[in-house]
Structures are given as C-alpha cells and as structure tokens.
Amino acid sequence: PVAAPVAVEPQPPAAVRRLPAALLLDHGGVIARSTRTPDARRAFATRLAEQLTRAGAAFTVDEVAAAIEAGRERYGRWKAERSDGAVVPEITPREFWCDLVGPDWSPHARAFLLAESARLTLEYARSKSHATMRPGVAEALAFCAEHGVRVAVVSNTVCGRAVREELDRYGITHLVGAHVYSDEIGRRKPDPATVTAAVTALGVAAADCWFVGDKPWRDMAAARRAGVVTTVLVRGGSASDAAVDAAPTGPADERPTHVIDEMTGLLGLLAQARAADSTPA
Questions:
Q1: pLDDT digits (tens, 9 = 90+) for 105-126
Q2: Nearest partner of 235 among 211, 216, 254, judged by Cα
Q3: Are residues 29 and 42 in the same domain?
Q4: Which has more confidence, 220 or 84?
Q5: What is the pLDDT of residues 243-254, one digit of tens each?
Q6: Does one domain contain both 154 and 45?
Q7: 142-161 in b/e burial notation, b at 16+ Cβ within 10 A?
Q8: Are residues 190 and 259 part of one domain?
C-alpha cells in the first residue's frame, strides 16, 4: 500500500543533533552529474539499425535515431502526465520501446522491440549520457561506513542495472547497503514507494533517516511523504538555482531541512551531527 502523505515541517539547519540511522541518496544530480553524449547515442542507433536489418526489419540509422529521440520526448510527456497522482508509475521496457519509440512501426519491428526491450533499455541508458561522480560523495559514504550509518541509493531511472554499473565504476558499491530503482520497483518519486522500500530494506525507521536529493518537487516530496524528517537539497543538479532558493518557502512537503551548494557540504553536516552525538548532554 502507498503511504499517505505526511505533513512534516522541516527543522531549521541548527537542528543537526545526531547522525541518521541511514542516508538515502538520489543518483542523478546528487551522486553524479551527467553530460549528453551525441556520438554514443548515434553509435547505439547504428547498432540497433544493424540488428533490425539482421532480423529482417530494415531501417536506416537516421530513422532509428529519430524514433529514439521521439521516444525520449514522449517519455518526458508520459512522466509529466502521471506525476501528480497518489501512485506514480514507472514505465516498463516494453512500454518504452513498443509504445513510445516504435508505436508506428510494423508488427514485425515491434515484435523485435518487445523481444529485445530489456537489453535495449540497458544499452540506451549506457549511451544517452556520460556521468561523473560529484566531489565529496565518496568521502561522505566512507564517513557513513565508519560511523555505522547505513546507505541506500533511491533513484528514478529506466535502468537500475546501468546505475549499478556506474557506481561500480566509481568504486563506491561496497559503501551502499541497498539499491532502489524505479524501473525495478515500478514506481517513481514523488511516489513515496521507493523511499519506503529503501528504509524497509535497510531495517530502519524513515523518521531516523536523511534524504539527499536535487529536486524539491520530486525528492523532497517523496521523502517527506514516506515519513523522512530531515532532507538535504543540493545545488548543481536538475533544479535551477532559483528553484533551490525558493524551496525553503515552497510547498510544505517540498521544503528541505538543509540546502548545500556541493556534496562536500554533506560531509560537513554529517560531521556536525557526529560532534553533537559525542557532546555530553
């Protein structure tokens, strides 16, 4: 069942009194920043066109590239149309490829997309952008490991497997206790289901966790609806500086407890909480 929205007022920044039981982090914009990779996208379209031809459904590279781009744009609209309900679903590989990328393709070509949808989603996720880990992430996660704070990655994505590969590349997988991805759960933030799944997987109470995200309308909202009290909003992700500046006085469930400029600031908050934990009452 979906957790009902909870009206939790954010605490002021001075209220860093103790370490969280768990740290929950979004991926894109928080753990990593991404830049588009047109050459990799073109290479993916070329491979897909070749595969279709071998299957007897010939397409040019330009036709495939245009279909993928149209599918990406349809996916943006698909998400926007479903973002305000009590249940916010994630698209399946079959839906993405058959309904968004190839809705007008022949039954033969659509049958190919259906058969290959899981593999195509992984290759698409690998090709659409190149991500680099933000400074301060590894240090914050190492701090958590040293001080017994459990960690989960909670991310909206069409391919959690690709995110896992990326975290392996960064060398931080051993610092993560649980991975919760929308394509594997079937629900997207701001639906609280992914956050609830993460705290359940870690065996902690939501109220004892911190959530770190870059989108007030999605990350802060999902965390608070799941019962997380302390939320951290980081600049430099998807939200503009204006949106970040407005968040502390925005809708109640989108207000962050803390705003940090870089992920290095997260380590400062954790150290402050650790010091407060160690201070005699």
A1: 999 999 999 999 999 999 999 9
A2: 216
A3: no
A4: 220
A5: 999 999 999 999
A6: no
A7: ebbeeeebbbbbbbbbbbbb
A8: yes
Comparing CA positions, the residue from 57, 111, 83 lying closest to residue 218 is 83
Residue 80, domain extent = 38-127
If asked whether residues 43 and 30 sit together in one domain, one would say: no
Examine the domain organization and report whether 18 and 116 are in the same domain.
no
Amino acid at 179: H
| 49 and 182 co-located in one domain | no
SS (H, E, C) 87-117: CCECCCHHHHHHHHHCCCCCHHHHHHHHHHH
Residue 181 lies in a domain: yes
- CATH code of residue 254: 3.40.50.1000
Q: What are phi and psi of 8, to 5 degrees?
A: -110, 115
DSSP letter for each residue of 130-196: EEEEPTTHHHHHHHHHHTT-EEEEEE--S-HHHHHHHHHHHT-GGG-SEEEEHHHHSB-TTSTHHHH
**Residue 106 counted as domain residue:** yes
The domain boundary, picked from 127, 153, 180, lies at 127
Residue with tokens 């759960």: 185
pLDDT in tens, 159-184: 999 999 999 999 999 999 999 999 99
pLDDT score of 1 more than 80: no
7 domain residue, yes or no: no
Which among 141, 138, 125 has a CA at the least distance from the CA of 34? 125
Q: Which two tokens stand for residue 188?
A: 């997207």
Domains in the chain, number: 2
* First CA to last CA distance, the chain: 40
Asked if residue 5 has pLDDT above 50, the reply is no
Q: Helix 137-146 vs helix 264-278: angle between axes, to the nearest 10 degrees?
A: 20
d(CA 231, CA 254): 9
Residue 103 domain-assigned (yes or no) = yes
